Each structure stands twice: as structure tokens, then as C-alpha cells.
Amino acid sequence: MMRAGPSQEDVRRHNLGTLLRFVHLRGPASRATLAESLGLNRSTIMALTADLTAAGLVREELPRGPGRRAGRPSLVVRPESTRVYVLAFEVGVDRLVIARVGLGGVVLDRREAARTRGSDPAEIVGTLAAGARSLVRKSERDAVCVGAALGFPGTVRRADDAIRFGPNLDIGDFPLGDALSRRLGLGLPVSVCNDANLGALAEHGRGAGVGCDNLIYLHGDVGVGGGIIAHGRLLSGDEGYGGEIGHMVVNPGGRPCACGSRGCLEAEVGERTLLAHADREEAPGQSGRDAVRAVVDAADRGDIVAREALHRVGTWLGFGVANLVNVLNPGLVVFGGTLRDIYLGAAAQIRSVLATGALAAPREKVRLRTAALGDDTTLVGAAEFAFADVLADPIQVLARLRAPEDSRVH
Ligand SMILES: [Zn+2]
User: Fold this and answer.
1) How far is ligand 1, taken at its centre, from the CA of residue 376, in Å?
2) How does residue 65 score in pLDDT terms, banded at 50, 70 and 90?
């Protein structure tokens, strides 16, 4: 039997998603630009735009600013950022962040709270839910929340958005997605993802990796996380645990790791290790990004101990990157979090290890860069993850969400 090709309806749904994704990621665009970029004719673009406008996802406007030409101006298709939004959450080692992010990636509003090391999961859920509800209350009357996602520094089971392992937060098995969804009471599931996986999505969509479909994102804080984009998609593995680059062993028999193993990349290049090498472990208030920056600054000023510490950490990081380059042949490796500072301080050492540790062919074109989204990679990635459903099938998803409250399945 021959397989049926895509129906007209499938094609339309695909095109609606493609157009919406384009203005979501690249910003407002004229019909002419859309036609050219998406390879569709003007009348198709007009029909798709009309459907998306009727659904309240985009609006057409006269172009703003100095780009206007004389004559009849071409209308610009703009995402409805204040009417269509997602909730994005970040659980960090030291902070909790909640944001309302509009279509187009506009952060409409955000709340941030310090997380005291040792707070339990119920406290975290309570703080996040209360913050999110106050943001939702401030949204416009006709605004619709189309998704919610959370970034977490640990391993997360994709099937049920449950935490499996969060060593740096002392959280073991916990159904974080379900618990937060229930406390929010919006009738929406909350997707939970590894924070560095989200960082990879964010840098690919809006940061240093735009246009590069094979990239690796490495994120450092207390631990080291990783995210792999292959052929434009996040490589999540069989159950969602993929990309744990921080637990790749680079130094067998090396320093003990929070996971129970030894010589993991995380154990050799994490915040605590750098501070230990630099003899700054015991200094009061010496932890986090500021402490890592202080070591890099001291090395820049010629401090021998700081230089040696960066050199050691840079060597292990170089081995890690060399292994990744050999296995995955990325076009780009992006360093975020504390690894951004470490990369800036140890780039020469990392490149020198890469020159001998990686095969010549995959090494030739690989670029090493710092994250473009700074400290918001996780949050931006969570928003992108939360938008995925509506971008895949805009009209259906919105119709379902706008349906009267009592007809929804709870
Ligand atoms: Zn480990």
C-alpha cells in the first residue's frame, strides 16, 4: 500500500507554524520578506497571515521608523506579544526566576527571588506559583497563556517532567512539573527540562548559535551542564537524560564528583574546583559567578596562583571539548555561566589542548564562542520550550486554550 502524502490541511498547518515561528524568532517582517524567506508566494502568505490574524496571534501594521519608503507601504506582520504569552521558570542554585514572555520572545514581566541553599521542593513550588499568579493577574484581559516550562539544574525524566537527580540542590526524585502545575491552577501542564538543554535551545534560537544547526552549549555554575543541538533539534536521548556533558570522565581517578564518580568534567572545571586551585575556597562570601570572575581578574593582573588555577581548569575543559568535537563534529561550542568567564580567561589553553586532542578534520571549522544571552539563557530557553506547541500547530492550540473554561478537561 502506498503511504498517503501530506494532506492540504497538514501543509497549511505546517506553513502557519513556519510563518509564526519566523516572526517569533526574527521579529516583524513584511509580506515580501516572508514570501522570499519561506519560499511561498504572496497570495499564500496573505492567506496564512489572515488566519493568524483572525486567531489573534499576529497583527499587520504600517512599518515603523525610518525604513518607510514613498508610495504605498508594505504591511508588516508582527507577533501579538502582549496577548499571547508563556510562563518561563528558572530554578537555579541561588535564585528562582519567573517571567511572563510574550510571543516574539519579549519579556513582559519578571520576578526574581533568592533561593536559600537547602530550601525544600515544596517551598520552591510555593514561591514559583505565587510569583506566577501575580504575573498572570497583571496580564491584559484578553491575553492567553499558551504554555509553561521550567529549567532545572539536574536530570529530568521527559515522560512525566519529574526530577530524578539534582545533586547541587539536594533534590532527589520529585514530580516538580505536576506539583507546580497543580499549584498554578491554570489548567496547563508545566514542562520541566534540564537547564543547560534549555540554554542550548536559547542560544540556537536567539543567541550565539543562530544559523548553526549543530552546536554544543556548556553551562557552568556549581556543576557543569550541557545541551546538544543536532540537525537543529535538541538531542535528548531515549528518556530525556541526554547531554550530561558535565559527567563525561576526562580525568580517570581525578577529583570526586557529586554524582559519585571521579574525574568528571564537572569535578575538574566546576566553580568549587577553580576556587580550590586558586586557594580561595575558604574565603568568606567566595562563591558563585563573582568568585569565579575574581579569579579570572586576578589572573589577568598577573597573579601566579590564579593563572595556574585557570591553566589547570582550562586543560580539562580543553580535553572535554576535544572529545565532543571528535564525537559530534559541532560547528560551534558555546560557553555559558561561569564557563563563559573561564573560557575568556583560558581560551589559549583550551585551544592548545583542542589542537592536539581533537582530530584535524572536525577541528578545522569548529568555532568557540561565549553565550550571547548572558545570565538569561535558561529562562529564554524555557520560554522557547513553552512556545513549541503553539508554533507547531498555531490555530488548533489557540482554539483549544481559548475554549470556555468549563469545557476543558482538568
Ligand atoms: Zn559526575
Assistant:
1) 25
2) low
